[in-house]
Amino acid sequence: MMEIVVVMIVFFIMLSMGIIFFTQYAQGEANKAVTEVDRANMAETAKIVSSLPELHCSLANDQGLACIDTLKAKEFALLLDDKERLHYSNLFYGFKAEADCIYSCDGIGSPQLFDYTGAGTSSQRFYIPSAICDPELKRCGYGEVVITQTR
Amino acid sequence: MIRKAQFEAMGLAVVVVLISLGMFILLFFSLRSPTDFVNRYYYEELGQNTIEAVLISNVEPPTGTCQSTFSDLIQDVAVRHTDSCGAPSAELLQAGLDKVLTATLEQKGLRYKFTIVDADNTKYYERGACDITKEQHDTPGMESLPFFPVTIVNVTLYVCSS
Q1: Could you say which of A8, A32, A142 has the minimum Cβ distance to residue B57?
Q2: Per-residue b/e over A27-59, b at no fewer than 16 CB within 10 Å?
Q3: Segments forming the whole domain that contains residue A105
Q4: Is residue B147 exposed (0-12), middle (13-18) or buried (19+ Cβ within 10 Å)?
Q5: Which of A68, B22, B85, B156 is most buried, by the most CB atoms less than 10 A from its CB?
């Protein structure tokens, strides 16, 4: 009788340890999944931003997806200041995007595209290499579109 | 007495089976390598976008401004053998690309291999410590500049997994 009780006790101790271990493991995996979903959302938003015709260059030598037209970007930013533009606010809710010129930026600048971030505390960033072109100056600098997500 | 011993053996067997099952489940989950679609997307797009953006960007000359793009400089070096923007094109190309790559990929701690090579395997530019024959990398970004009838110059960027 005593031996059966001991075996049962050992069994339940091991079962409890297994449950605790598995719960912690599952919690870690759930956190990883949340982070991964956030990053996937970010990549998706980056993909949308980089393929917006509202921002693309249109001069003969700089057509292509990896190019932001600064004049269009300024107009786009003004357009998105109007919070009634529900299409964009739904599409980019929680995100901010700016075109950051890094090299050969003389006279080109780094326009902000939109800012739909709230009062979150943590943020992560995603970078899309892009030429930033001024059609008036007829020149392009090398830069990045920086997408920031705030939670 | 025999019955009691049988009960004990059964109890132990159950415990052993349960522990084995637990370990099997744990190993199954922990050994599965997660497919990181975001990283794959990022590295693939990063290579191609970097090259496209670089080629249409204007070069920063030592003084003043310059209307030549990196694509023009590559043509100068590979085909025309001329200079642009008041300085040797090869030097401008080298200095400009070094500056761009240092301020972007290297600052983010990414390993890469950037090359500009023509159809005769003449190298016009090479930078990056990634050994593409040994290290893991995704599909490279690549642009072919056809300077017909002289040659084709391939600009390639491999971004290797850190």
Answers
A1: A142
A2: eeeeeeeeeeebbeebbebbeebbebeebbbee
A3: 2-150
A4: middle
A5: A68
Rounded to whole angstroms, how far apart are CA atoms B65 and A29?
53
Q: What does the CA dihedral B97, B102, B103, B108 come to, rounded to 10 degrees?
A: 130
Residue ranges of domains in chain B: 1-32, 41-160
d(CA B49, CA A127): 11
ipTM of the complex: 0.76
Contact B147, B139 (CB under 8 A): no
The answer to whether the predicted template modeling score (pTM) of the entire model surpasses 0.80 is: no
- pLDDT 10s digits, B127-140: 988 887 777 667 78
CA distances from A91 to A47, A80, A88 (A): 12, 12, 5
Sheet holding B141-147, edge to edge: B123-127, B111-118, B151-160, B141-147
Token pair 């979150």: residue: A120
Question: Do A67 and B56 count as a contact with CB atoms less than 8 A apart?
Answer: yes
Q: What is the dihedral of CA B87, B92, B93, B95, to 10 degrees?
A: 160
The number of distinct structural domains making up chain A is 1
DSSP annotation of B127 reads E
pLDDT in tens, A26-64: 888 888 888 888 888 888 888 888 888 888 887 766 566
H or E element, residue B11: helix B2-31
Spatial separation of the C-alpha atoms in residues A105 and A12, rounded to whole Å: 68
Chain A residues closer than 8 Å to B52 by CB: 64-67, 129, 131
Contacts of A138 in chain B (CB under 8 A): 67
| CB–CB contact A4 B8 (8 Å) | yes
Q: Are B103 and A127 in contact (CB under 8 A)?
A: no
